[in-house]
Design goal:
- By secondary structure, the protein is of the alpha+beta class.
- It has two domains: 180 residues, Four Helix Bundle (Hemerythrin (Met), subunit A) (Up-down Bundle), CATH 1.20.120; 251 residues, paralog of FGE (formylglycine-generating enzyme) (Alpha-Beta Complex), CATH 3.90.1580.
- It has twelve helices and twelve strands.
- Strand 6 and strand 7 form a beta hairpin.
- The termini are far apart.
Length: 461
């Protein structure tokens, strides 16, 4: 039996499936469950497709403690559905392998002691074949649950969280394999068929400044279960803020502009850097390599950049990628500007993003796997979404009135609200149905293996 065929019109779209339920205690209709199956299947297929260019040896690699092997991402996302959905919602469900509960638990201490993150690359067993069997087992039983059982709105909200959790791991999978391949002196490509120069832009237009007036603005989401687009709990609750007038750049900083900063001695001038940032770059300095963004390499006086299509000549027109918060802040100081706060970024995005900005943004489905020089006309500003996550000057913390839930899922976001910085906008490896203006990503200020870039802001006198 297929709920998709029973839906009559082939099921609702994935975008619509995010708008079907609220937190009232009711059971979902046939069409609503069909839409959930459609969304789930699409996301699971996408994750598997991202592994097609990889060998079993590739999927075992863990290049640093912050990264995870591809095979671990495949298993952990299945563990999430098994742990938070199937064990409670499907009567008679038998777990696939009881040993998986420990090794594929990421950080949920209320569910037991997780396996140490830096040691995930030591897990040669289970094999990749066993992990794909695990995924198939989860897929079958999720579909059985959605077809045969009553599904409440609360369960659907938790299940949708699991789908978006897997989309987060699609981005992490690509971040992590890129970092792993970069450790290989042969600089192998994730995919040989990628276009290393997907655009023909020769000239970078000058920055236009988006003007935002002072006012009281309401920001934040109604919550992940509200009618409307999905959101994580850390995106709410809605709250009002007074915002002074400011301006924000219409595009991201390019490789060419960042190269000017480097050649002007930006990495050697302590007055440009926050104290922690200066200490970090001093400690991270590598003999024989000039300090530069993570994936840059200077070879015989020429600059190159490692991408998922291998080592390529540095394209000066595309946005600079894989910079840390420290580097972004130092560049902004050198340029006589600053980084926007996350509230400024969100206000500007609501004011200047067109309704089709997400549809036209450089996101995962475009299969560029790298930022492109998509310079919009002054009335478009599509770089606000996609291409690169954009550092803000805001520390990652709770919105006024935020409370993490008291169950295990409450560990998803709230426990990380310390010592990290917020990024906004999505990247070239963020799934299209996953990104939105209110999305709050967060990383530690020294980290740069994520697809992160720089957007400048300034005050209006």
């Amino acid at each position: 039996m297929s709920l998709i065929s029973d839906a009559g019109s082939g099921g609702l779209s994935r975008a619509t499936s995010e708008q079907l339920f609220d937190n009232e205690n009711r059971d979902l209709s046939l069409n609503e469950r069909a839409a959930l199956i459609d969304h789930f299947q699409q996301v699971r297929r996408e994750t598997a497709a991202l592994t097609d260019p990889l060998t079993a040896e590739d999927m075992q690699l863990q290049s640093m403690p912050d990264a995870s092997p591809t095979k671990w991402h495949l298993a952990h996302t299945s563990w999430f559905f098994e742990t938070f959905i199937l064990r409670d919602a499907l009567p008679g469900y038998a777990v696939f392998n009881r040993g998986f509960h420990h090794i594929f638990n990421s950080y949920y201490n209320t569910l037991g002691q997780p396996f140490a993150r830096p040691d995930r690359g030591l897990l040669s067993r289970p094999s990749i074949e066993q992990i794909f069997s695990y995924r198939a087992h989860i897929d079958r039983h999720i579909e059985q649950w959605l077809i045969e059982e009553d599904v409440t709105a609360d369960q659907a909200a938790l299940f949708t969280l699991g789908i978006h959790h897997e989309q987060q791991h699609q981005e992490l999978l690509l971040m992590d394999i890129k970092h792993a391949f970069f450790q290989n002196p042969a600089f192998p490509a994730y995919r040989e068929d990628l276009d290393p120069f997907p655009d023909d832009m020769d000239d970078v237009p000058p920055i236009q400044w988006l003007q935002v007036p002072e006012d009281h603005y309401t920001l934040g989401s109604d919550g992940e279960g509200s009618v409307g687009n999905f959101s994580f709990d850390n995106e709410g609750p809605p709250h009002q803020r007074f915002q002074s007038a400011f301006r924000m750049a219409s595009r991201l900083v390019t490789n060419g502009e960042f190269l000017e900063f480097l050649q002007d001695g930006g990495y050697r001038e302590p007055r440009l850097w926050l104290s922690d940032g200066w200490n970090h770059i001093r400690q991270a300095a590598t003999p024989g390599h000039p300090q530069a963004p993570m994936y840059w390499r200077e070879i015989d006086g020429e600059w190159f950049q490692f991408t998922l299509s291998g080592l390529q000549p540095l394209d000066l027109t595309v946005p600079v990628c894989h910079v840390s918060f420290y580097e972004a802040d130092a560049y902004a100081s050198w340029a006589g500007q600053r980084l926007p706060t996350e509230f400024e970024w969100e206000v500007a995005a609501w004011l200047y993003c067109q309704k089709d900005a997400r549809d036209k943004a450089n996101l995962l489905e475009n299969r560029n796997f790298q930022p492109i020089a998509e310079y919009a006309s002054p009335d478009r500003h599509i770089q606000l979404l996609g291409n690169l996550w954009q550092w803000t000057s805001s520390a990652y913390g709770p919105y006024p009135g935020y409370r993490a839930s008291r169950d295990a899922v409450g560990e998803y976001n709230g426990k990380f609200m310390c010592n990290q910085m917020v990024l906004r906008g999505g990247s070239c490896v963020t799934p299209r149905s996953h990104i939105r203006i209110g999305y709050r990503n967060f990383f530690y200020p020294h980290q740069a293996w994520q697809f992160s870039g720089i957007r400048l802001a300034g005050d209006i006198q």
